[in-house]
Description:
The protein is mainly alpha-helical. The chain has two helices and no strands. The protein is 76% helix and 0% strand.
Amino acid sequence: MSRYDWDGTEFESIIDELIEKTDRNKEQLDKIQATLDSLERDHDALKNKIVGPLQYDFEAFKIDTIKTVVKIYKNLNEKSFFVIGSIQL
């Protein structure tokens, strides 16, 4: 008995490769999330010490970082969707 419905089909290697790439992308996103979590902890630790323009600069940096991560995630999702969408089962 096969693990998945596509085992033994002509799509097996394509789907397995997509799964591997998805796993790698998830690992990268997990690392990015860990970095964001670290930034959030640093922000919490320093928020009472940072005043005026410095606080604004940190907030702008944080927002830009989040936007960048969201953009990366959307691009990865679109690429995965495009490849998966082109496979006709």
